[in-house]
Model the fold of this input.
Amino acid sequence: MKIINNISLMGYDGVLTEGHLSDEMTQIVVPENSSFSGNILHVSGDIHLKVILDGENSNFDIRIIYLSNKNSKNSIKVEVLHKHKNTTSSYIIRGILADSSEMVLDGIIRIPKDSQKCDGYLNHRAVLLSDNAKVKATPELEIYADDVKCSHGSAVGALDENLLFYLMSRGIDAEEGKRLLLKSFLSDSLADSFEMYIDEWMDKNV
Amino acid sequence: MAFLEIKNLCARVENKEILKDFSLTINEGEVHAIMGPNGSGKSTLSNVIAGHPAYEITAGSITFKGKDLLAMRADERANSGVFLAFQYPTELPGVGTALFFKTAINAKRKFLGLPDLDAVQFMKRLKMRATALGITDEMLKRPVNVGFSGGEKKKMETFQMAFLEPDFCILDEMDSGLDIDALKVVSNGVNIMREPHRSFLLITHYQRLLDYIVPDFIHIMVNGKIVESGDKTLALHLEEKGYENYK
Done:
């Protein structure tokens, strides 16, 4: 199996800048016996990403982190079409929202009738740092094949008070404690290349 | 001046009164144990002393080394020398154990006006105490408490305590979920920390723990307050007769 591509897209370096992809769609086509893997850091704008698994034994996994602040209103739409059998997909999406920012997240996994033995995964979790931040998440499955494995889920909430208390009971102040918890929260979707940017963002927003 | 003085403390969570006119005085170097049935308010007491924000104090006071503890945030209490070993320690995926320890010790040093430990000093301090408690290098490399058994988590709590060198240690149900070997290791970790300037509060359901960490005083807590106090023999009576007599 060959790895055909590996992207690291960041919202601030011109690849996914504000508004840049709002009307267009970024489409990634993965041919048979190929894998695609990528990380996206999204800080502003609307993005629409569609992956087509275009041959048998094609796979992809994408990890998206989004960070929202001030009164920004952004959207992320992700889709995957399992066009062939024996294909796998994974979207892991983690968001942190500060101030009165809003995010609309749509995710859909499509598996047509003849695409048996597919595995689709879409998981979204977001942390709200303020009572005024909002997320509207709509994960969907559209499955017509009968022998597939597919799951999706979404969870949004404030930082766990009990976790923060654990850190504070060790002498760590609330701000540093929140940063550690947020890093922990992002740990399953974090690419090393994003770390510095995320640290800077936290300095300003946590 | 008492080391820790809790006076007529009333506390509630979600509008439910849990501590009702609770008083307790602990002097320097003493080991106290609080025993009581489930729901008597033992864990609430430890959370209230350590400063959990979910509990509302409706009356009473806690002074620690002459300072008003209730006026301090949880991190200030910790840096002033209060330590709570949790019944259910938290897992922190993605946060390395060593980083966690370093963040905690340097927060305390900053509070005390001391410079950060450098990498060499830090590793030396970490390794020295790890060996005594059977904490392996492999455990230190893992994220905090992730994938640890119940016994390993309790060892890690004791290790944190030994590392941070607090003056007042609360151990909440330290014995729950421990097999006898782990109980011995953890108890030994506590016993070697017993010193004239350091006090302990053991919260426990069973007498078993007190065979290994022998307290100076035992208090029976029922329905939010202490109903009887005595020396270590009180636990033996309790083992025989249970909590029924106090209800």
